[in-house]
Amino acid sequence: MSQMITVLGATGSIGVSTLDVIAGHPERFKVFALSGNRQFQRLAQQCITHRPRYAVVIDAQIADQLRALLEASNCLTQVLCGEQALIDIASDSEVDTVMAAIVGGAGLRSTLAAVQSGKKVLLANKEALVMAGALFMDAVAHSGTTLLPIDSEHNAIFQCLPQAYSNADRGGVSKLILSASGGPFRGWDLPQMTPVTPPQACAHPKWDMGAKISVDSATLMNKGLEIIEAQWLFKIPASQIDVVVHPQSVVHSMVQFVDGSVLAQLGNPDMRTPIAHALAWPERMSSGVGDLDFVALSRLDFEDPVIDNFPCLGLAYGVTEAGKDAAIVMNAANEVAVQAFLDLRIGFTQIADVVEYALNASCFNEPQSLADVEHTDKRARAMTSHRVTQLER
Ligand SMILES: NC(=O)c1ccc[n+]([C@@H]2O[C@H](COP(=O)([O-])OP(=O)(O)OC[C@H]3O[C@@H](n4cnc5c(N)ncnc54)[C@H](OP(=O)(O)O)[C@@H]3O)[C@@H](O)[C@H]2O)c1
Fold it and tell me: Are residues 242 and 174 in contact, defined by beta-carbon separation less than 8 angstroms?
C-alpha cells in the first residue's frame, strides 16, 4: 500500500526536496495535498506534476491565480485557502504522513493538527517545537504519532541513538553533540559582520536553504533553536547538548556514550538524505544523494563556536535556562528581526540586539495552552516590530 502524503510548505527548499525524493518512488507514495504561500506558479507546476487532490494557499487572491493556472492546464487539483484549510489537509483521515515544512510560527497550528490526528509527522518546522514544546510533545504522547526529525542534526542523532533510548533509560547516552557548519561568517568578528547584506548572509557555504533559516545559520540562532528542539525531541537537558563547529558539514551530529564511544552519522550535505530516511523509516530507500567520497574529502575539522561573535547562540543558551515561555519570545523576536534584516530595515548584527531587547523586556510565564503560546508570540512580535521601527529612525 502506498503512503498518502501532505506536504506543508511544498514550494520551499524542504518541500521541493521532499517532492524530488517522492518522485523517485511512485510505488510507495501518493501526494494527497500540497501547500504554498506566495509562489503560486511553482505550486501550480507541482500540482501538474504530482496531481494532488488539494492545493492550499493562505491568501484568497493568490488562490484565484492558482486556480486559473490549474484550469488552463486541465489539472483537477482543488484549490483551498486559509489556515483552516492547512489544518484540514494535515489531519484528513486519508492522510498517512505529513511533511511539516512551513517556515516559522506560521506552521505551528497545522503541524500540531497533524500530530494530534496521529499522522506520521516529518518535522522540519523546528519553530513549532521551539514555541510549543511541552504541548507538542504531550500531543505526541497522547496521539501515539510517530514524530521523525528532518533537521539533519536531529535526524543524525535519531539514527545514532540506541533503540532502548527513552526518558527513563538513556541506554548509556551521556550527551548529544550538534554539528554547526559555522555559516558564511565563520571566523569573522562582530565589526566585520556589521555591514553584511542579505545576499551575503543567505549565501551558505554548504546548504541551499530558504532565506530565514539561511540568516539563522549565519547568526547561529539556528543552532540555538536546534538546542531547544533537541531538548524536546530527545528529552535531555541543554547541559548535555554540546555544539561543535564542523565546516565541512559531513558529520551531521554525534551521540556520546558513557563508555567513551561516539556514534556519528555522516553523509553529503543534502537534505534529501534525512527526508528519504524519515519517509521510508523504519526501512531505507534511495534519496538521489551520491555516496560520500572520503578520499576527496580528505579531512574533517572541528572547533568551538565563538559565542562572543555570535551572540544569538548565547541568547539561546540563556533561554534554555530561563525556561517557561522565553523560547516563544526569542523565536518571535528572531522571526521579526530576520525579516526586518531581509527587508533592509536593520543591520545584520542588530538581529541579536533586537532579540535581546525583546527578552529583556519580557516576564516569562509557563504557557498552559495553545492560546497562551499564541498570545505570547503575538505580544513579542508587536514589541519587536516597535523596536525595529525605533531603530530605523
Ligand atoms: N532548508 C533546509 O535545508 C532546512 C533544513 C533543516 C530545517 N529546515 C526547516 O524547515 C522549515 C522550512 O525551511 P525552508 O528552508 O524549506 O524554507 P523556505 O524555502 O522559505 O520555504 C518555506 C515554505 O513555507 C511557506 N510559507 C511561508 N510563509 C508561510 C505562511 N505565512 N503560511 C503558510 N506557508 C508559508 C512557503 O511558501 P512560498 O514559498 O510559496 O511563499 C514555503 O512553502 C523551516 O522551519 C526550517 O527551519 C530547513
Answer: no
CATH number of 323-393: 1.10.1740.10
CA distance 354 to 315: 11
Provide CATH code, domain 3-149: 3.40.50.720
Distance between CA atoms of residues 237 and 249, nearest Å:
24
Express each pLDDT in 26-46 by its tens digit: 999 999 999 999 999 999 999
Question: Is 106 close to ligand 1, i.e. is its CB under 6 Å away?
Answer: yes
Task: For residue 176, list its beta bridge partners.
Answer: 241, 255
For residue 213, which atom of ligand 1 is closest to its CA?
47
DSSP state of 56: E
Dihedral sign for Cα 119, 120, 125, 129, please. positive
Q: Residue 348 — very low, low, confident or very high, per pLDDT cuts 50/70/90?
A: very high
Strand-pair partners of 340: none
- Domain borders along the chain are 3-149, 153-269+292-307, 323-393
Kindly report the number of other CB atoms within 10 A of residue 309's CB atom. 18
pTM: 0.98
Phi, psi of 159 (to 5 degrees): -70, -30
**What is the gyration radius of the CA atoms in the chain, in angstroms?**
20
Contacts of 160 by beta carbon, 8 Å cutoff, 6+ apart: 253, 254, 255, 263, 264, 265
| DSSP category for residue 104 | G
Helix (H, G, I), strand (E, B) or coil at 265: strand
Q: What are the percentages of helix, strand and coil residues in the chain, rounded to 5?
A: 50, 15, 35
Atom of ligand 1 nearest to the CA of 208: 3
Q: Is the CB of 342 under 6 A from ligand 1?
A: no
List, in order, residues 6 or more apart from 134 with CB less than 8 Å away.
Answer: 232, 367
Ligand 1 lined by 271 (C-beta under 6 Å): yes
